[in-house]
From TrEMBL:
Transmembrane segments: 12-31, 57-78, 99-120, 204-224, 236-255
The keyword Transmembrane helix appears for this protein: yes
Protein name: Putative phosphatidate phosphatase
Gene (name only): wun_2
Species in which this protein is naturally found: Lygus hesperus
Taxonomic lineage from the root: Eukaryota, Metazoa, Ecdysozoa, Arthropoda, Hexapoda
Topology relative to the membrane: Multi-pass membrane protein
């Protein structure tokens, strides 16, 4: 592949990825969740505010850093061990190493799926505007819930007396859980990648142990959101479903060409084998018929 084609492909990839990621930036900077009301006797939104066990910086550092490092190291090892001929790729007159080309493809698809997962999550957050479990503690609504008239009334006319505008905004973004969807996507995708690209020559269960660690990281992150009073259990459940489903779809689409190529190869080999079997069968029946014909023309010999 020449330098011009490679550069065009790289620019196109970055433009598409940026276009998909742009709405995320718009949501974070200018998005305003809908203002929902509440019931005074709703105990699910009366939990105290707690700091996150898994802060955002740790979530993104591990969720993005770990899979990218594993992918790059794996592709370096596989490229070093590969003996199959490959099409050379040039960029600015320099031939790109195979591991760099494969790492770019793997990491690019992974990042695209991560952006899609977050997009689906943020659309839910800024459309539903569900109140977090610590909403009362953060908002401190200007309603006297001790009055009987408010006990079973859905209250929409209220003012939050809380001082932190950032916390007030976040208090309305409970559904679905962003930590759960992001951790599920990154770790499930990494588990699929390990299954597909890494082949252990030693222990049989070592690879599965690594995959289990990925799942446990995601699971622990999701559970921490409930323990920290950041999300309801249903928020976490839907977040896990979004992340897992996006990981499965993204990974399956990324290996679609390999699956099609494998099927074509198997189909070609099957056709070749069938042709060989049919040819052998024809030769066998021809020889058998020839022997029978000769046997019918030759006179029998009587032994005394």
């Amino acid at each position: 592949m020449d330098s011009r084609s490679v550069l065009k492909k790289v620019i196109t990839d970055f433009v598409v990825l940026s276009a998909v990621a742009l709405p995320l930036l718009v949501f974070r900077l200018f998005g305003t969740p809908p203002v929902r009301g509440f019931f005074c006797n709703d105990e699910t939104i009366r939990y105290p505010f707690k700091d996150s066990t898994v802060p955002n910086i740790a979530l993104y550092f591990v969720g993005l850093g770990l899979p990218i490092i594993v992918m790059c190291v794996t592709e370096i090892i596989l490229a070093h061990q590969s003996t199959e001929p490959t099409t050379p790729v040039y960029l600015f007159g320099m031939r790109m190493p195979l591991w760099l080309v494969k790492s770019y493809e793997m990491v690019g698809i992974f990042c695209f799926g991560a952006v899609c997962s977050q997009m689906i999550t943020d659309v839910g957050k800024y459309t539903i505007g569900r109140l977090r479990p610590h909403f009362f503690d953060v908002c401190d609504p200007s309603v006297d819930c001790s009055l009987s008239m408010y006990q079973y009334q859905y209250i929409t006319d209220y003012t939050c007396r809380g001082s932190s505008s950032k916390k007030l905004r976040e208090a309305r973004l409970s559904f679905p859980s962003g930590h759960s969807s992001f951790s599920a996507y990154t770790m499930v995708y990494l588990a699929f990648y390990i299954q597909s690209r890494i082949h252990w020559n030693g222990s049989v269960i070592l690879k599965h142990a690594a995959q289990l660690c990925c799942v446990l990281i995601s699971w622990a992150t999701a559970l921490s959101r409930i323990n920290d009073n950041k999300h309801h259990w249903s928020d976490v459940t839907v977040g896990l479903i979004i992340g897992t489903a996006t990981a499965v779809v993204t990974f399956c689409l990324s290996i679609k060409e390999e699956i099609v190529g494998f099927r074509k190869k198997c189909g070609t080999e099957k056709t070749y084998l069938l042709s060989r079997v049919r040819h052998s069968d024809i030769v066998y029946h021809g020889l058998r018929h020839s022997v029978r014909s000769r046997g019918s023309r030759e006179p029998s010999v009587a032994w005394s």
